[in-house]
Amino acid sequence: MKRITKNSPNAELENVNEGDQIQDDTGKKGEVEHIEILNRCKEKQFYYKLKDDGTILVIK
């Protein structure tokens, strides 16, 4: 299980793959079904769609 937070390095967030088990700092966890990374102005948004109906969002 990979633990991801807003303090995780970008390289670690980019190394998450579909099928990986992840958990955020609020306790939400699950298997990654789809990943979307958006660049907005000066921030980077990581959307991890979970198989069990949920999304983990990390904004850097």
Q: How would you explain this protein's 3D organization?
A:
The protein is mainly beta and 60 residues long. Helix content is 8%, strand content 52%. The chain has 1 helix and 5 strands, in the order βαββββ. The protein has one helix at residues 10-14; strands at residues 2-3, 21-23, 29-40, 43-50, 54-59. Strand 1, helix 1 and strand 2 form a beta-alpha-beta unit. The chain is globular. The termini are far apart. The relative contact order is 0.27. The mean pLDDT is 94.
N/C terminus separation? 21 Å
Main pleated sheet:
5 strands, mixed
**Which fold does the CATH topology refer to?**
SH3 type barrels
Q: How many distinct beta strands?
A: 5
Oligomer: single chain
Shape: globular
User: Main sheet: which strands, in order across?
Assistant: 1-2-3-4-5
Global structural class: mainly beta
| CATH architect. name | Roll
Low-pLDDT ranges:
none
Total discrete domains = 1
Number of helices: 1
The CATH class, by name, is Mainly Beta
The helix content is under 10%
Biased composition (Polar residues): 1-10
Region (Disordered): 1-29
Summarize the structure.
Helices cover 8% and strands 52% of the residues.
Provide the descriptors you would attach to this structure in a database record.
8% helix; 60 residues; single chain; mainly beta; five-stranded mixed β-sheet
Write the layout of secondary structure elements.
Blueprint: E1 2-3, H1 10-14, E2 21-23, E3 29-40, E4 43-50, E5 54-59
Parallel strand pairs: 1-2
Antiparallel strand pairs: 2-3, 3-4, 4-5
